[in-house]
Design goal:
The structure holds 2 protein chains of 2 kinds.
Chain A lengths: L1 H33 L9 H11 L10 H20 L15 H21 L3 H32 L4 H10 L7 H17 L18 H4 L5 H26 L10 H28 L8 H22 L3
Chain B lengths: L1 E7 L4 H10 L3 E10 L2 E10 L4 E9 L5 E3 L6 H14 L2 E3 L47 E6 L11 E7 L2 E8 L7 H5 L4 H8 L7 H16 L5 H29 L3 H22 L8 E2 L2 E4 L5 H20 L1 H7 L7 H7 L3 H6 L6 H4 L19 H25 L3 E2 L12 E8 L2 E9 L5 E7 L1 H5 L2 H6 L7 H8 L9
Parallel strand pairs in B: 1-4, 5-6
Antiparallel strand pairs in B: 2-3, 3-4, 7-8, 8-9, 10-11, 11-12, 13-14, 14-15
Helix pairs in contact in B: 4-5, 5-6, 6-7, 6-8, 6-13, 6-16, 7-8, 8-13
Classes of the chains: A mainly alpha, B alpha+beta.
Chain lengths: 317, 492
């Protein structure tokens, strides 16, 4: 049990670290092909990371510990989230600690770390990006919390593996009004949290329009590699969480090597599919005016509130 | 064309200028000349239709050249005066904003590059104090400095935003990082040598600047260009408008994160550049317009132009039909008609704010080369500029097809006479950014002594900060792209 359980944690973290750049490459490739471009290939983000890791570490003058610690903290918090969240298996050695509130707090920690680093860089762009990121985070974190909370009501626990296992044994929950509303709310929150269209444009070069990229403009070399990897891992973990919560089939519920292998393969497939669908959808979207973004996020928060309400009333609890 | 030249004394200048402005003429160009024993300033006023051009010549004392300022009568005049002071040392008396414009603060004091005795550029001198940025003070006001080096392939310009939250309170655009001394380089060339330089004033406006220069030279030489050559010129002028408009329509979509339309717009642009290459032998249409006429290697296929029209129409329809794209364009960076008129805006910037400025109508060089009516919009926002340019691109396609049907490839040039008939000439052409005015002066043996091109960007740059008041910071790149002003053409 504990050997397989420990292996499951290692497989999840390793899979997220190795797979995140590939997911990013896949999404860029899908977008490129749909726009009529050849694209750089799925392996390009890995090649970029390798290039950045080989470079000399440079930090700008006047930056302090917040700036230097942020890339490592970002990757570390995301790696812990990847270990906790039930991606390939619900039966891991840490599944008992995989609490919804811990996961959201870890994600928020990563966000705040990066925002502090942006402020620490002392440039106008860093501060501007941090201010925008915090505005968005203040709307996104509650949405994630409340929408997953709506799913936890039928299970009666905020333990994520318990929620996923509960949904597996009673799939009707997923298509209940509460389940659908929570899906929609969480999907929008994931878009905002990972800086995708229509909230942020990850491929822009226009500094003044950036949110996430503006905070990390001062990073270079290995630090930049970590920041990029961290952002890619967050996207992967959040898409994985979305997949596990709303399409839990295939996830390993027992601590056997076979189930774990199937769980990993199914999880990779689901995340790749979700990523490809997101990339394809992004081709048809445009970036919202910054002042319209709170409207979108307030809307998704409302959906999550409705999900909780529906879950409370319709389950007759 | 109704052309008039008047020699007047400096004291009566403001009174004369007021009369000309009141009669509906606009100040198109101010150029200082260092003659033997005098500094002569030429003010060119134009209006049209009917095509009217009035030159005021003012002679000044070469030791202490100074003119009464016209800044209170015309905003562009105030900028021309500052440019003239920086390059020629002609002092505008009682100018309301007397600090430097063209010359950055590390250029040595007292060195004026356009003077005949200026010599080679001296090493950078001591800073003449810091640049006088106006500091906006108040609770929560902060500054965002951007540039002069930008991400992406953008020309250098420094923008200083004073911002509260995300709202721009004030924007100062500090330009003039690319002074190349083009006006000085023209001196001493012959007509053909000047042409090569004129086509390179602003890389994306080879035909516009080349044509304005040719029209000026031909007026000085007294040459009549054949009607066929005029049509060929109108054709390449529209082809230039077309490839620039198509590129920017796509870029505007890209700036709101709708990249797929940009990919397709760039695909169309590439078709147009290849068409340009086939038509003139140069992708950016250099070498088609020459003093004395025009040369075409081939004539565009009207069927290709019709296909491009359908393709482009689809892109603009998709952009305008997209709720988010339309929302981002609507109401962003609105420039009012009164502001556009006061600042002397030209081209699509003016037409998007309800003015009908278009040199193809006001100063035509052929009766064929223009659409039915100028495309105008009233709202002055990014959407208006997008719509004007989309409409103009379609009109250009129609016009190019009509002109191509009557044209044959070949050399349509009449040779210039050995000696020019006059000593000066002016040319006005509606480049894709707006009306380009060029004035040339030559010696009797045909050597250029002074060429002054004025790009519409010189008039339009001050409109950008005005339009940006109360716009939010993340909308600035979109607003800037919708103006798409030239740095190189502005800073000669």
């Amino acid at each position: 049990m504990s050997v397989i359980g420990a292996a499951a944690v290692a497989v999840q973290v390793g899979g997220v670290v190795a797979g995140a750049p590939l997911l990013c490459g896949l999404m860029r490739q899908v977008r490129a092909r749909l726009e009529g471009r050849a694209g750089a290939g799925v392996g390009q983000p890995w090649r970029d990371l390798r290039k950045l890791l080989r470079k000399e570490a440079v930090t700008s003058l006047g930056t302090g510990p917040a700036f230097r610690a942020a890339p490592v903290l970002l990757v570390a918090t995301t790696a812990v989230v990847a270990a906790l969240v039930p991606l390939a298996s619900t039966a891991t050695v840490v599944s008992g600690s995989s609490d919804l509130i811990v996961v959201v707090a870890l994600l928020a920690l990563g966000t705040v770390t990066l925002a502090l680093a942006g402020l620490d860089s002392g440039t106008a762009f860093g501060g501007m990006g941090a201010s925008r990121e915090m505005t968005l985070a203040a709307l996104v974190e509650p949405t994630i919390l409340v929408s997953v909370f709506a799913l936890s009501l039928p299970t009666g626990s905020t333990n994520l593996p318990a929620i996923v296992s509960g949904a597996l044994s009673d799939p009707d929950r997923l298509v209940s009004p509460a389940g659908l509303l929570a899906t929609a709310a969480l999907a929008v929150a994931v878009l905002a949290e990972t800086g995708r269209l229509p909230v942020d444009n990850p491929s822009t070069h226009l500094e003044l329009t950036m949110v996430h990229e503006a905070m990390v403009l001062e990073y270079a070399g290995p630090d930049l590699a970590l920041v990029e990897l961290g952002a890619q891992m967050r996207l992967t973990v959040l898409l994985g969480l979305l997949a596990s919560l709303f399409a839990p089939w295939g996830i390993a519920t027992t601590a056997s090597a076979g189930a774990l292998a199937i769980g990993l393969a199914v999880c990779a497939g689901k995340v790749a599919l979700l990523g490809a669908v997101l990339a394809a959808a992004e081709v048809f979207w445009a970036k919202l005016r910054l002042f319209r973004v709170p409207e979108l996020l307030a809307g998704s928060f409302l959906l999550s509130l409705l999900a909780v309400t529906a879950s409370y009333f319709l389950s007759g609890a | 064309m109704n052309r008039r030249t008047e020699e007047i004394g400096a004291p009566e200048l403001p009174c004369q200028v007021r009369k000309l402005l009141d009669s509906g003429q606009r100040l198109a160009l101010v150029a200082a000349h260092h003659d033997e024993g005098a500094v002569r300033v030429v003010y060119l006023f134009v209006s049209g239709p009917p095509d009217t051009r009035t030159e005021l010549h003012v002679r000044l004392d070469p030791d202490q050249p100074s003119v009464p300022t016209l800044a209170h009568l015309s905003f562009p005049a105030g900028r021309f005066e500052r440019e003239m002071r920086d390059l020629h040392g002609v002092v505008p008396r009682e100018h309301p904003l007397p600090h430097r414009l063209v010359r950055h603060y590390h250029w040595p004091r007292g060195w004026y590059p356009m003077r005949p005795d200026a010599g080679a550029a001296p090493p950078f001198g001591e800073q003449e104090g810091p640049y006088p940025f106006l500091a906006v003070e108040g609770d929560g006001v902060y500054e965002i400095p951007v540039g002069p080096v930008h991400a992406g392939l953008i020309e250098p310009g420094h923008f200083r935003f004073s911002v509260v939250g995300e709202t721009i309170i004030r924007l100062k655009a500090r330009l003039w990082f690319v002074h190349k001394g083009i006006e000085k380089l023209f001196e001493g060339r012959d007509a053909a040598g000047g042409m090569r330089l004129a086509e390179r004033v602003s890389g994306d406006t080879a035909v516009g600047h080349g044509l304005a220069y040719c029209l000026a030279v031909e007026e000085a030489y007294g040459v009549e260009v054949s009607e066929e050559a005029r049509r060929a010129r109108a054709l390449v002028l529209e082809l230039e408008r077309l490839h620039n408009h198509v590129a920017d329509l796509g870029a505007l979509c890209n700036d709101v994160g709708h990249g797929v339309l940009n990919s397709h717009a760039q695909r169309i642009r590439e078709q147009l550049l290849r068409l340009a290459d086939a038509t003139t032998g140069h992708r950016l249409l250099r070498g088609a317009v020459v003093p004395g006429g025009a040369r075409l290697a081939s004539v565009p296929d009207p069927a290709l132009l019709a296909r491009v029209a359908v393709d482009l129409g689809e892109i603009t329809d998709l952009a305008l039909g997209h709720a988010t794209v339309r929302d981002r364009f609507t109401g962003t960076a609105a420039l009012g008609a009164q502001a556009a008129r006061d600042l002397g805006c030209l081209g699509y910037v003016a037409r998007a704010s309800g003015l009908s400025a278009d040199a193809r109508f006001g100063h035509p060089f052929t009766t064929e080369g223009r659409p039915q009516v100028p495309a105008t919009q009233a709202s002055g926002d990014v959407l208006a500029r997008f719509l004007v340019r989309a409409e103009e691109a379609q009109a250009s396609l129609e016009l190019a097809a009509r002109l191509a049907a009557e044209l044959r490839p070949g050399d349509m040039t009449v040779p210039l006479p050995r000696r020019p008939a006059g000593t000066s000439g002016t040319g006005i052409a509606e480049g894709w950014r707006g009306a380009i005015t060029t004035r040339v002066e030559l010696t009797p043996d045909g050597t250029l002594t002074r060429v002054k091109p004025v790009d519409p960007s010189f008039f339009n740059w001050p409109a950008l900060p005005v339009a940006l008041a109360d716009t939010i910071v993340p909308d600035f790149p979109l607003a800037n792209k919708s103006f798409n002003l030239s740095y190189a053409g502005n800073d000669l």
